[in-house]
Here is the input.
Amino acid sequence: MNKKYVIITPCYNEGEGIILFLKELELVVKKIGANFVVVITDDSSEDNTLALLKDFNFESENISKKLITLAYNVGHQKAIAHGLAYAKKI
Here is the structure.
């Protein structure tokens, strides 16, 4: 049985930092024999974070992304809660 794991990360005005994080994450999880979904909750960033995330795609077949965009900034913990609510459905 091939397991699926969900990684949740909130972000707010991360810019290139979030892309560096996702690339490093991919280097690690592509070696693991499981499938991963990375749920990224953009907490209404005001910089180029959202545009960068929309353009980013993982290269490895065992990792995919789900981008949640919040209409207004709700803070770190509530952004995580939105990610958890989504993860519960998959």
